[in-house]
Write a structure and sequence with these properties.
The complex is a heterodimer. By secondary structure, chain A is of the alpha+beta class. Chain A is built from 17 helices and 18 strands. Classes of the chains: A alpha+beta, B alpha/beta.
C-alpha cells in the first residue's frame, strides 16, 4: 500500500484538535475550513462527490476551457435585430436573464418592454403598450436564446440596432444592444418621449456613422482592447472609462475617413465621449462570444452564462446545454446615490454578469481597485477578490493579465463543482436599478451569485452522467 | 427638520469615495439624510429632486458639497465635524501581499499540500460519506472517524477505494497509527515490527500500548471501523490491511482484532491470514479459539494475550510478565459483609465488551447495558444491580454529551453513586490516555475516588477501586504520572484490562475466580 511508503501528510476535515495532535506528534496536517457543501443540501453534496476529479468531467472541462480561450471576438459591425439575430421573431421582444413571463417581470423590465412597444409603434400609449404586453400577442424570450446579451432590462426589439461581434475561430456571431448612457434610459425601464427619441436618434444617426467607421477600419480585435483597458483601471463591467476612450480613439479615425457628414460625426463623438459605459455592451457581446465557444461539451461543469432578470438569477453549464438553473435574484447591498437606499432597489438585473462568467468584471477586480470601494473595501480586497475567484475557476486567461498580481491572467471558466465545494460564490460588480420603471440607476455595488443555482446545476449534471 | 450644508472649494474626491462617505454619515445617530457630492449641475438637481437642497448654493463642479439633515443643530454640527475629519483621513495602509483564502475543500487542501496521502474526516455523519468519496476521487486514503454513515455508503466507498488501491479506515474508526503518526484517539508507541489491524479503536490502543510496554514496537496500526466485518461489507478494509501488512517488509508479525465477524467473513479473513507468509495473531473477542486454526494462525483470547503472543512470536521467547501484583492487591480484608459485587464503569466500549465476556464466564448473573455472552441486559441503565458493567460511551449515555474519555462528569457522578451502594465491593475503571483523550484523566478522577472513599468510610465501608491505564510514557499525559496519581488516590492498578477484571473478581468473589 502506497500509504506506508510516503511520509504521512494529512488533510484534516472536521475536529481541528486531530490536526493539532498530528502536528504535535511530528506529522504534517492541514486543517480544511470545512462547512457543509451546498449549505447542507445532501443531494447536491452527494452529486458533487460523484463529480470531483472525475475523468470525463475533467476532460470535458479542458475542452470547454480551451474553446473559451481560443475565441477571438472582433467587433465586426452594426445590424438591425430582426435582420441579424438568429430566431428573432417579428413580434418578439428579448430581455435579460433566464425566461420569465410578463406578470412576473420586475418594474424596470416591464417599463423597458413598454418602451420597446412604443418604439416599434405597436401601441401609441404606455397603457395600451402594457395591455398588449399582457395580452400574450408579444413573444418574450431571453437574449441568451438568440446569441445576444443586454445590460439591465436587456430589452431588444426587432427594429433596434445591435453590435455584431464575430468569433472567426468558431464561425459564430454574438450581439448586444447599444448603450444609451446614464440617467433616464430604456434599460432601467424609462420609456418617456425623450428616451424613445434618443433610441430613434441612435438608430437613424449614431449607428450609421459607427457602421461606416467600422467599414473603413475593418473588424476591431476586442481582446487586445480589453487587455489594454485592464491595464488602465477598468474591469470592463462596472468600469469602462478606459475601454470606452480607447474605442473612441479608434472609431474617430474611421468616422472621419468614412465620408459621413461632419455634423453627424460630431454628434456621434459627443454622445460616445459623454458615456463612460459606452464600451460595456461590446465587452458583453465579446464575453458572450468567448463563452458560447465553450457551450455544449457533454459532462462539462464549466459555467457558460450567469444572467438575472430582476426576479431570478440563472446560470447555464456547458454540459447541460440550454437548461437554466435559477434561484431568487439577490438585492445588492451596495452604495446608493443621494436620496436612495436598498429599499428602492430592484433585485439583481441584467445579462452583464456574462463579464464575470468570462473572467472579467468582479473576477478582474485586481485591475480596478476603484471598484472595490463600493463595499467599503481597500485595494487589498480587490486583489483578494480576484485571488479568491482563482479557487472556483478552471484556469487563467493569459490574454487578460493583471499588473498588480504579477501579470497573472484573470481567473476564468467558473467550475460549478468548485463553487459548491468551497461555498466561494462568484463575485459580480453591478449597477443597481430602481425597482420602479424609469427612475434609472440608483447605485452600484458588489454582489454574489446565489449558491442554489450551482447546487442545482451540479445535481443535474451528475444525474445526467453514468456512474463511474 | 433642520439641515446644514458645507462647501469645500476645489476639493475633488471620486464619486465612489463620496458615496461611501454619504453612507457612513447617514448611519450616524440623529441623521435622517446625508449627501456628499461634487457640486455639478446634475448632482445639485438630484439633491433638489430628493428634497435635500432648498434654494441656491454657491458651489461649482470643482467644489465638494456636503448636505446633512437631522434632528437638531448640535447633531448636525457633530456630524459635519466627522465628515470633515473623514475627508482628511489617511487611507488605511495596505497590509502587503494578497490575502489568501484558507483551504475550504479537500481539493483546495490538496493544492496547498500536494504530498498529502490521507484525509482524516470527522464531519457530522450526514456529510461524511460525500467528503470521503471526494478524498478517494482525489487519490487520498481515508480515515473516517465520523459515525452514522449508512452501510450502503460504506460499501460503495470501500469498493471504490479497493479498486484504486486505496483504503477506507472507518466509518466509526477512532484509532490508527500510520508511519508512526497517531491518528484520532491513539497513543505514542515505539515503531517496530508488529502490524495491527483492528475493528475496534480501544482494542487497537490496548494492543499497541501493551506491545510498547513489552519492549517492542508497532509497524502500522490500521483501523477498519466497527462495521467492516459485517456480512454486507465483507471485511474489505481488514482484508486490505492484512494484505498490505503481509506485503510490508517492516512488518514481521500481524495482529487482527475484532469482535467475532460474520462466519463467511471470518472464513475469508482467516484464509487470507493463513497465506500471509508471516505469523498472524487473531483476537476475535469472544469467539471460540477452536475456530481459529491453521498454519500461521495464533488465536488470542484477550487483547493482552494478543499483544503478548505477538511479542513472543517476534522474539522467539515468552516476554517477562507485564508485572505481577503483590498478593496485597487482592486483599479483601477491608470489605464489609454486604459488599459483594463488581461495578465496572467503562469509557472504552471494547474494554467493557472484554470485561463482560471474562466476568460472565466466571460469575452469574452479570448485567450490562451492552450485554455479551451470558450477561443480561440491565433494564434501568441508571441503577446497577448485582455485578454490573457499563459502557458509558454507549449512545444511551452520550446523547447530547461529549464522550466519557473527554468529559468525566457522567462517570464521576456514577462513581459516587456506586460507592454509596453498600453492595459494591469493587469499582472497576478504565483510563485511556493518548491523543484525543482528556489531557489529565487522573486529575479528573482522583479527587472523586478520594471523596467516594471518604464518604463510604463514614458509613463503615471501603469500596475497592481497581483499574488499568491504557497508555505509554510518551503519551501527552504520561503513563507514569497518571498511574502515580491514581495509586495515590487508592486505585489498585493492573497492567491491562484482562488483569484488572481478574483482580476485581479475586476481590469481589474469591471463590469463583478459580473457575475462570
Amino acid at each position: 500500500m502506497k500509504l506506508f511508503t510516503d511520509a504521512l501528510q494529512v488533510l484534516n476535515v472536521g475536529l481541528s484538535s486531530f490536526a493539532d495532535s498530528i502536528g504535535e506528534a511530528g506529522g504534517t496536517a492541514l486543517q480544511i475550513e470545512w462547512t457543509p457543501p451546498a449549505q447542507g443540501d445532501r443531494a447536491a453534496g452527494t452529486a458533487l462527490a460523484q463529480l470531483v476529479n472525475r475523468p470525463d468531467v475533467e476532460a470535458a472541462n479542458r475542452q470547454a476551457f480551451a474553446a473559451y480561450l481560443a475565441a477571438q471576438p472582433v467587433l465586426e459591425g452594426v445590424g438591425v435585430a430582426c435582420d441579424v439575430l438568429p430566431g428573432m421573431g417579428a413580434r418578439m421582444i428579448l430581455h435579460a436573464g433566464p425566461p420569465i413571463a410578463w406578470e412576473r417581470m420586475c418594474g424596470p423590465m416591464q417599463g423597458a418592454i413598454v418602451g420597446a412597444i412604443l418604439l416599434e409603434g405597436w401601441a401609441d400609449k404606455p397603457q395600451a403598450a402594457a395591455a398588449l404586453a399582457a395580452s400574450g400577442k408579444i413573444a418574450f424570450d431571453p437574449c441568451h436564446h438568440h446569441a445576444a446579451v443586454g445590460p439591465m432590462a436587456g430589452v431588444i426589439s426587432p427594429s433596434m440596432p445591435v453590435w455584431i461581434v464575430r468569433d472567426p475561430t468558431h464561425a459564430h456571431r454574438t450581439f448586444c444592444n447599444f448603450n444609451e448612457g446614464l440617467g433616464k434610459a430604456l434599460r432601467f425601464g424609462a420609456n418617456g418621449k425623450d428616451v424613445i427619441e434618443r433610441l430613434r436618434w441612435m438608430a437613424s444617426e449614431l449607428t450609421p456613422v459607427l457602421a461606416a467607421a467600422l467599414a473603413v477600419l475593418g473588424p476591431i480585435e476586442i481582446k487586445p482592447l480589453i487587455a489594454q483597458a485592464l491595464h488602465m483601471g477598468d474591469e470592463v463591467h462596472n468600469r469602462n472609462a478606459a475601454a470606452s476612450s480607447l474605442l473612441l480613439k479608434r472609431l474617430v479615425t474611421g468616422m472621419l475617413k468614412s465620408g459621413e457628414a461632419r455634423a453627424r460625426i460630431a454628434s456621434a463623438v459627443e454622445f460616445i465621449a459623454g458615456n463612460d459605459h459606452f464600451f460595456l455592451n461590446i465587452s458583453m457581446a465579446a464575453c458572450k462570444a468567448m463563452l458560447d465557444a465553450a457551450r455544449g461539451v457533454p459532462a462539462s461543469s464549466m459555467v457558460t452564462a450567469m444572467a438575472r432578470n430582476g426576479v431570478d438569477f440563472g446560470i447555464q453549464l456547458s454540459g447541460t446545454g440550454n437548461r437554466w438553473f435559477t434561484a431568487p435574484a439577490p438585492v445588492v447591498d451596495g452604495l446608493y446615490f443621494a436620496g436612495y437606499s436598498i429599499a428602492d432597489a430592484a433585485p439583481d438585473l441584467g445579462d452583464s454578469a456574462i463579464t464575470e462568467t468570462a473572467g472579467l468584471g468582479g473576477f478582474a477586480m485586481a485591475a480596478a481597485p476603484a471598484i472595490v470601494k463600493f463595499v467599503g473595501g481597500t485595494s487589498d480586497d480587490a486583489l483578494a477578490n480576484t485571488a479568491s475567484m482563482g479557487h472556483v475557476t478552471l484556469g487563467q486567461n493569459p490574454a487578460f493579465t493583471l499588473p498588480p498580481m504579477n501579470f497573472a491572467g484573470t481567473p476564468a471558466g467558473i467550475d460549478a463543482r468548485k463553487v459548491v465545494d468551497t461555498s466561494l460564490l462568484p463575485v459580480i460588480n453591478t449597477g443597481i436599478a430602481h425597482k420602479e420603471a424609469g427612475i434609472g440607476q440608483i447605485g452600484a455595488g458588489i454582489t454574489h451569485a446565489p449558491l442554489a443555482c450551482f447546487a442545482a446545476a451540479v445535481t443535474a449534471l451528475a444525474r445526467g452522467l453514468t456512474a463511474t | 427638520m433642520p439641515s446644514v450644508t458645507k462647501v469645500f472649494r476645489n476639493f475633488y474626491r471620486d464619486s465612489v469615495s463620496l458615496m461611501q462617505l454619504s453612507a457612513r454619515l447617514a448611519k450616524l445617530p440623529g441623521l435622517s439624510q446625508a449627501s456628499a457630492v461634487m457640486a455639478s449641475e446634475n448632482n445639485l438637481a438630484l439633491l433638489r429632486e430628493a428634497g435635500q437642497l432648498a434654494g441656491a448654493v454657491d458651489a461649482g463642479p470643482n467644489d465638494l458639497l456636503i448636505v446633512l439633515t437631522g434632528d437638531d443643530a448640535p447633531t448636525l454640527e457633530a456630524a459635519m465635524t466627522e465628515a470633515e475629519a473623514a475627508l482628511y483621513e489617511k487611507p488605511r495602509s495596505g497590509g502587503g501581499g494578497v490575502r489568501q483564502e484558507p483551504p475550504r475543500s479537500l481539493e483546495m487542501g490538496l493544492a496547498a499540500l500536494p504530498a498529502a496521502s490521507l484525509a482524516l474526516i470527522s464531519t457530522p455523519g450526514d456529510y461524511a460519506a460525500a467528503e470521503a468519496m471526494k478524498a478517494l476521487r482525489l487519490g487520498l486514503n481515508v480515515l473516517l472517524f465520523s459515525d452514522n454513515v449508512a452501510i450502503a455508503d460504506e460499501i460503495e466507498l470501500k469498493r471504490y477505494a479497493e479498486s484504486r488501491d486505496l483504503i477506507v479506515m472507518g466509518p466509526d474508526c477512532g484509532t490508527a497509527i500510520i508511519n508512526g503518526i497517531p491518528l484520532g484517539f491513539a497513543n505514542v508507541v515505539r515503531r517496530g515490527a508488529i502490524g495491527v489491524v483492528g475493528a475496534s479503536g480501544t482494542g487497537l490502543q490496548q494492543v499497541t500500548c501493551l506491545i510498547d510496554r513489552l519492549g517492542q514496537g508497532v509497524a502500522q496500526a490500521i483501523g477498519t471501523g466497527g462495521h467492516d466485518l459485517h456480512g454486507d461489507v465483507g471485511g474489505i478494509s481488514m482484508l486490505q490491511g492484512l494484505r498490505a501488512l503481509a506485503a510490508d517488509p517492516t512488518t514481521r508479525v500481524i495482529v487482527l482484532i475484532s469482535k467475532p465477524p460474520a462466519a463467511a467473513v471470518a472464513a475469508r479473513v482467516l484464509a487470507t491470514a493463513r497465506d500471509a507468509g508471516k505469523p498472524v495473531v487473531v483476537n476475535f473477542l469472544g469467539a471460540d479459539p477452536g475456530s481459529i486454526r491453521g498454519p500461521n494462525l495464533h488465536p488470542a483470547k484477550t487483547l493482552e494475550d494478543a499483544a503478548v503472543t505477538a511479542v513472543t512470536l517476534l522474539e522467539g521467547r515468552t516476554p517477562p510478565a507485564l508485572e505481577s501484583h503483590a498478593a496485597a492487591a487482592a486483599d479483601r480484608s477491608g470489605l464489609a459483609a454486604g459488599q459483594r459485587f463488581v461495578r465496572g464503569l467503562y469509557s472504552g466500549g471494547t474494554f467493557c465488551f472484554e470485561a463482560t465476556m471474562l466476568l460472565a464466564e466466571a460469575l452469574a448473573p452479570v448485567y450490562s447495558n451492552t450485554p455479551v455472552g451470558t450477561a443480561k441486559s440491565l433494564e434501568d441503565v441508571w441503577r446497577s444491580r448485582g455485578n454490573t458493567l457499563l459502557d458509558l460511551g454507549d449512545d444511551v449515555f452520550t446523547r447530547g454529551r461529549p464522550h466519557p474519555m473527554i468529559d468525566h462528569r457522567l462517570r464521576n457522578d456514577r462513581i459516587l453513586a456506586e460507592a454509596a451502594d453498600p453492595e459494591t465491593a469493587v469499582i472497576l475503571l478504565d483510563v485511556v490516555l493518548g491523543y484525543g483523550s482528556h489531557r489529565d484523566p487522573a486529575g479528573e478522577m482522583a479527587p472523586v475516588i478520594e471523596a467516594a472513599r471518604r464518604t463510604a468510610a463514614r458509613a463503615g465501608r471501603q469500596p475497592i477501586f481497581v483499574g488499568f491505564v491504557c497508555g505509554t510514557d510518551n503519551d501527552p499525559q504520561s503513563l507514569a504520572r497518571q498511574r502515580a496519581r491514581l495509586t495515590e488516590a487508592g486505585m489498585r492498578l493492573a497492567p491491562s484490562n484482562a488483569q484488572a477484571v481478574r483482580l476485581a473478581m479475586a476481590i469481589a468473589a474469591p471463590g469463583e475466580v478459580r473457575r475462570s
